[in-house]
Amino acid sequence: RKVVVHVRSAGNAPILKQDKFKISGRDKFLRVIEFLRRQLHQDTLFVYVNSSFSPSPDELIIDLYNNFAIDGKLVVNYALSAAWG
Amino acid sequence: MGSSSACDGTLSLDEFNASAKALVTKWRGIDVDALPDWEWRPCRKMGVPSETEGFVALEGVYRIRAGSQQIEESSDDPVPDDDVVGHDTSVQSSRDNVHLYDFHIVYSFSYKVPVLYFQGLQAGGQLLTLDEIKKDLPPHSLQLLNESKWTFITREEHPHLSRPWFTLHPCGTSDWMKLLLHKLGDKDRSLQYLPAWLSVAGQAVGLKIPLKLYCSS
């Protein structure tokens, strides 16, 4: 089953042109993180769900969606994390 | 009294205490099967427990030492990535392969944020070095520790136990807490502070926080 994820930039993170996509519920949150890293060309991102916590990368998308989706979408925010060097 | 956790990612001592007690209560209520319970530890001044100062402790978290191959797995289950094993799981390994971790959440008066203090012990009670602790951590935690200025480990004297512990340095905390708490109203912000904070601090030290902590009751 695919679910809709809506990514939103926070702080001074760049806004993505494509900010909504569908992902399999059986995938892990890591896929969202990796997608964001690729699109933004950034490794150190701070990624968190609208309900104010940062999920572990091995959480299942379907678990996040079932518990925290609003209006049929899982909202994931991303910000640039302070990186070394 | 102290500044509210309004928009700057910090919290006052009173807010810390309230959030800590809410965390302990909620954690107990969600029946976490892989981890023990957080406990509130009041500080003692001359033997008398303080009303206003204390910290939250999660102790006796088992980790199977990296590289040890003696866990009996049921036939088809893949070996989990996460090294944390609950203390009621039957583990067929020798005692020497188990490391025990203690985690304390202590309020920092100088940064006005919570700070995570932790230590690891071998089965015989010897303290683990930082390198040994890092070997127990999943790759994601190591990446967080190495890449982000917001999450790195230093060694500090535990403010209440007068011994050096490892700690996640608090200097970046208010920056990321500002982001996490941004959408919440004032009252929610205080009580939700520690669970939100723990979602990040836990990842840095390989502590898997159950999703149920973030669901509204």
Radius of gyration of chain A: 12 Å
Approximately how much beta-strand content do the residues of chain B carry? Answer: 25-35%
Query: Can you give the helix content of chain B as a percent range?
Result: 25-40%
Strand order of the largest sheet of chain A: 2-1-4-3
Biggest pleated-sheet summary of chain A: 4 strands, mixed
Annotation, overall tally of beta strands of chain B: 7
Based on DSSP secondary structure assignment, what is the total number of beta strands of chain A?
4
Mean pLDDT of chain B: 85
Report the biggest beta sheet of chain B as strand number plus sense, adding barrel if it closes. 7 strands, antiparallel
Catalogue the unreliable spans of chain A.
Answer: none
Q: Per CATH, what is the topology of chain A? A: Ubiquitin-like (UB roll)
Protein name (chain B): Ubiquitin-like-conjugating enzyme ATG10
GO molecular function, one term (chain B): Atg12 conjugating enzyme activity
Keywords (chain B): Autophagy, Transferase, Ubl conjugation pathway
InterPro entries (chain B): Atg3/Atg10
